[in-house]
């Protein structure tokens, strides 16, 4: 299978890497050692967004508490979470993907890891989905045997070119398919993690229209937003503590047109269930794989209009879920 006009981008760039992290590549200049253990002042930092470039100076001075302040890296941002927690923004653009993880240590020091957008590459010869055993674990997961209980925020859905029923059912199917490791390879084992749809909510996902993560309200919400005609296609935000995911929100950009997967696909539309399945992979702890070497994978950062093959996981992604959660 080949992909054209990729919506998720392609192969990750590795040239600037200095070390690996659980959620991406640690780029030179993008991570700073925590300041010596000490209690950060209670007074919050004043001002708007802070670039990741400003973290080095802040960690040296520690003149104010950074929790609640927005950190920006490229086109991606995240609100600094409470002490002892992390937030990871997976932001998918039409020309690639970016990731930003911001962690606040117990002593109040703040670190950030980033991964820049990777330009789309033409798909090369690669294994078929059932012979592809590649995967990328983010290093965070839900507690084994737990249930991811989530809500749907329907506002703005009508602008996606999908009916209300199509959008909700596709979101349900995408979430369920990842939670059970659904695949076309005859692999019947199901990971020991569950999901439950809890109904609609007036609360919007804690995802900014600029393609970043705002402060979590502790409620797991999937929904829609206006992230601009050239903005992200979709964003997933995971909040975690000590390797355990505690909340996960998803927002899809209604400024792109979507298809329900039935009949003839109108030119230029993206299969919404495939997009949602990719995002839900992040929700359950799957990271991106190389889009050039693994174009059939659901978690490749590449998909073309009218491509609905990403609705099911490949062999490697299925095994990754079993590795994380064990078997039911």
From TrEMBL:
Residues 267-326 form the Peptidase M10 metallopeptidase domain. It comes from the Bacteria. Pfam families: Peptidase_M10. Residues 1-39 form the signal peptide. Keywords: Hydrolase, Metal-binding, Protease, Signal, Zinc. GO terms for molecular function: metalloendopeptidase activity; zinc ion binding. One of its GO terms (biological process) is proteolysis. SUPFAM superfamilies: Metalloproteases ('zincins'), catalytic domain (SSF55486). Transmembrane segments: none annotated. GO terms for cellular component: extracellular matrix. This is Peptidase M10 metallopeptidase domain-containing protein.
